[in-house]
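Section 5.1 Outputs to date
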Amino acid sequence: MVIIVIVLTYFALLFALSRWTGRHATNETFYRGDRRSPWYLVAFGMIGASISGVTFVSVPGMVNSIGMTYLQTCMGFLAGYVVIAFVLLPLYYRLNLTTIYSYLGQRIGRRAYKTGASFFLLSKMTGASVRFYVVCWILMSCGLGNGGNSASGHDDWMFVLVVVVMTALIWLYTRQGGIKTVVWTDTFQTACLFGALILIIYKVIGDLGMTTGEAVAAIRDSELSRVFVMDDWVSKQNFWKQFLSGVFIAIVMTGLDQDMMQKNLTCKSLRDAQKDMCTYGMAFLPANLLFLSLGVLLVFWYQHRGIVVPAAGDELLPQFVSLTSDLSPFTSIIFVLGMVAAAFSSADSALTALTTSYCVDICGRPDDERLRRRVHIGMAAVFVVFILLFRLLNSTSVIDAIYILCSYTYGPLLGLFAFGLLTRRQTNDRFVPYICVLSPLLCLAIDTLTFQLTGYRFGYELLMLNGLFTFTGLWVTGLPDS
């Protein structure tokens, strides 16, 4: 009951922001926020939008297996955000784009344009649905049912109700103002997310009987706080693999992602958008350091209480909440608030971006307000269907496979944009869809064969290989610019 009250109260605040930002809204407001968003609000809100509910529980759990080596990837993100700010954003503003994939149509051709947009729609719908599914599952586990593995018919219906209601709430507060509303609501939600994170850290430090200074010293001296891996070239945690992967992950999953770039394109000017991107990039490293520090403190907490540390990293924070909620309901309330903030801030922008891309890129009707409203409802319905399908499959291995699929679908986008930006060569547009489908399949075959022969499994570097195959295919099928 408490969880329901939290969600409804939280939504009431979001709806108030929605009513304020959605007054006199048009399609230009929905798609581009009338190009009036303050850059500092965009930067702050993007931090929350990039931290999903899955991140909220997964990043702290990383420390038990790989320490703080994830920060190496975050360092790569910083370099990637510089590329976005000074290479991609000037291009998008110069062309006055509503969706970034229309660049592919101007530079390569119509089929490249439709292919890029289609890959975005597939990966964003799948990825956002999985993340939202996991959040709903955790909320069920925290008090709305018996959890994700229950066979109870009551729990099944409760899960459906949670998914439908939460998706409907997101649709309701984004339906009028679109991206303009999202910029403001994401700012509020990011504040709630980090407020919840800091309160949980404070709670753990208090349970350990430490001062803040003692906690910082303990984290610094712990073996779990290792950041750099320079001596093992085979390891997935090797610094250069992580750093270079972080550069390309940032470029692809932010700079070539309509969801993330749509917020940047609402800034008043290119200079504001660049300030927004650089500020966001610099804040991302300390933000993840906070999550990882929480993970180290949680390991201390388990050891201090004589409790076995969960083998699955994703269970580290939820199990702590479960163990302490009976003695301190405050912990579970704050945890649920953080999860809801993370879930809403990533899902609302995804729903808006999906609607924008479908109307502008696929239908080619950016001025049709009636179409936009219908598509927005349709995307929300498809979102619900995807989540319920994941519930029906009810398999962690399937969910993992879907995440892998999303990572494969971003490779062709990297290859398409790299070809357009780095060369003046023309390619045969009719071959582009086939090249973009074959490249991920070739990567899958190479990864499988390598694992069978050597036992080595590709990590984030597969994204770069995927983009290289796409780039090569476009080059081979093309002709030099006359």
